[in-house]
Amino acid sequence: MNLKDTKPGIIKTCQVCNSKNVYQVLDLGYSGLCDSLLNKNQLKKKEKNYPLKLMRCKKCQLLQLNYVVDNQKVFHKQYPYKSGITKTLKDLLQSTGKYCVKNFTFTKKPLAIDIGSNDGTLLEGFKKLNFQVLGVEPTNISKIANKKGIKTLQKFFEKDAINHIKANYKKADVISGTNIFAHVNKLDTFMKGVRSLINPKTGIFVTESHYAVNIVDQMQFDSIYHEHLRFFLLKPLILLLKSYGFKVIDASKIPNYAGSIRIAATLNQKIKTKTSVNKILKEERRKGFYKNEKYKNFSKKVKKVKKNLIDLLWHLKQKKKKIVGVGCPGRSITLLSYCNITDKIIDYIAEQKTSLKLNMYTPTTHIKIIDEKNMMRKQPDYALVLSWHYGKAVMKNLKKKGYKGKFILPLPYPKIVK
User: Fold this and answer.
1) 293-298: long-range contacts (C-beta < 8 A, 24 or more apart)?
2) Could you say which of 238, 260, 290 is where a domain stops?
3) Which residue, among 315, 213, 196, has the nearest Cα to 257 in the 3D structure?
4) What is the per-residue pLDDT for 35?
5) Residue 129's domain spans which residues?
6) Nearest to residue 80, comparing CAs of 123, 138, 37, 116?
7) Full DSSP string of 73-112
8) Contacts with 23 (C-beta within 8 Å, 6 or more apart), sequence order
9) CA spacing 20 to 30 A to 62: which of 99, 227, 317, 375?
10) Which of the listed residues 239, 257, 290 is the one where a domain comes to its end?
11) Is residue 31 part of a domain?
12) Residue 301 covered by a domain
């Protein structure tokens, strides 16, 4: 299998196995980039929206987008997402280091490299376990990591960064990528870089990807956006890694991002594969994830959820109820644009005071993002929980802060929670 780096534009073949046997599962319309928020002046200008279609490869079972946006536009320098903004996610990310230490043996003074390291939250966990750490992050969020003492290169993980690491660091004991496998358009360059930097005997490549099983079974269609080019089952992950000489030796399902799959792979073919790998493969087959029917049903359910959510929101608006959004994760942009939820339905989106998204507007739907203290002061009737995948924690936190209204959870099916 000879993979190539994907260029911006329409993709006509599978991103993992190159098969032409790819068909459309779901059309989510057109949307702006989820982390390219707009300022007030930009609202007056023509906005660029991109097609958002979910495809499936019948050969290797990969779910994927059919359109690539240039990663310089997607992961621009002013990228506003911080992985350490909530304690819940911070704890989940830092569990990666604990997992590695518990399951594998490393050299003295081990080195951990995190690709797409954001604000260094994951590497803080490795640092607590006495690893040397190095992050690779192209956006200005890297500056936050460096201020925290997490050495971070502000570069894309491409030839320049790879050559710099080769020249200045020893072989890595752990290379991690948290949800990064879904993001990379230059997949061939990425995999060759990982292979060249990792210790061939003891090195472990750990990647955590939003699991296609959770996306389909739990109606997480909002997680389909332009940053995420691929949505992995275990089967295509194994195929992809094998083509670069890696052997998947462990797999586990973890709660990150409302359901992810963590895999560990090595170049050392002598290390035995754990039973967890075969167990998950059998489960995928048993649940029908290698058959067309699963995805036909998913598409039907998504359309039904869209209709039910819109009907619920407009019913409340006709009763003169005030509705606001709560939280503005990347996935919310897909939900808002696909369901055509604009400022005619929700007055604004409330975010934490530490968010980099405050006083900006959502792409496509143009809803203003403001400090949640305004929500506490005005007490709207309903709060649409856009971070619904952390729904219980979000609702508990807002009640603790003084919110007295009701909540609307949009997915996996719309419902009102008191």
Assistant:
1) 294/216, 295/25, 295/56, 295/216, 298/25, 298/26, 298/216, 298/219
2) 290
3) 213
4) 83
5) 1-290
6) 37
7) HHT-TT----TTSSHHHHHHHHHHHHHHHHH----SS-EE
8) 55, 56, 58
9) 99
10) 290
11) yes
12) no
Residue 239: exposure state from Cβ atoms within 10 A (0-12, 13-18, ≥19): middle
Same domain, 265 and 387: no
- Over residues 118-136, the pLDDT tens digits come to 999 999 999 999 999 999 9
Residue 74 lies in a domain: yes
Give CA–CA dist 213/224, Å, rounded: 13
Short-list 180, 158, 263, CA closest to 227: 180
Identify whether 305 is part of a domain.
Answer: no
33 with 107, same domain? yes
Is 369 within 8 Å of 348 (Cβ atoms)?
Answer: yes
Same domain membership, residue 63 and residue 100:
yes
Residue type (1 letter), 141: I
Residue 262 sits in the same domain as residue 367: no
What pTM does this model have?
A: 0.90
Residue 2's pLDDT is 65
Q: What is the pLDDT of residue 81?
A: 65
Upstream peptide bond of 412 is cis (omega within 30 degrees of 0): yes
Distance CA 370, CA 377 (A): 13
Residues 271 and 188 reside in one and the same domain? yes
Can you say whether residue 320 is alpha, beta or left, with left for phi > 0 and alpha for psi between -120 and 50 degrees? left
- Rounded distance, CA 23 to CA 56, Å? 6
Distance CA 362, CA 370 (A): 11
- CA–CA separation, 255 and 274 (whole Å): 20
Q: How far apart are the first and last CA of the chain?
A: 53
Cβ-contact 417, 406 below 8 angstroms? yes
Number of domains in the chain: 2
Predicted confidence (pLDDT) at residue 83 exceeds the cutoff of 80: no
DSSP 3-state of 388: helix
Are residues 87 and 185 part of one domain? yes
Q: What is the rounded CA–CA span in Å between residue 267 and residue 204?
A: 8
Answer yes or no: do 267 and 318 share one domain. Answer: no
Instruction: Note whether 318 and 312 are within 8 A (CB).
Output: no
At 77, the pLDDT band (50, 70, 90 cuts) reads low
Cα–Cα distances (Å) from 229 to 38, 54, 184, 378, 387, in that order, read: 23, 9, 7, 39, 21
- Looking up residue 374, the CATH number of its domain turns out to be 3.40.50.720
Beta-strand relationship, 204-210 and 260-266: antiparallel
